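can u do me a favor
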């Protein structure tokens, strides 16, 4: 299973989706944004051969919005301390 997880430690750019409607100013639908953005993003052009990209998928569902913020802060903290450039999709 862990062989399938992207090697973010070697990546130049890390993608992370946050599928969350709660707290969105425009209402429901934002939770589908990460996957919709990926469909368009990956369809734009072939990635640069020198760019090492790791797509970590979407942050898992949490019952409470504060738990979402905590989990996001936890993951982002690790990635940023490791010097990664992170693109949040949401």
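np, heres the sequence
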């Amino acid at each position: 299973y862990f062989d399938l997880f992207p090697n973010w430690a070697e990546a130049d750019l890390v993608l992370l989706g946050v599928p969350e409607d709660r707290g969105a100013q425009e209402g429901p639908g934002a939770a589908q944004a990460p996957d919709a953005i990926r469909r368009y993003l990956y369809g734009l052009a072939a990635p640069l051969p020198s760019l090492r990209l790791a797509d970590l998928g979407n942050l898992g569902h949490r019952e409470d919005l504060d738990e979402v913020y905590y989990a996001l802060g936890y993951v982002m903290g690790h990635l940023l301390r490791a010097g990664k450039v992170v693109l949040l999709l949401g």
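Residues 80 and 86 are 8 Å apart (CA to CA). hope that helps!!
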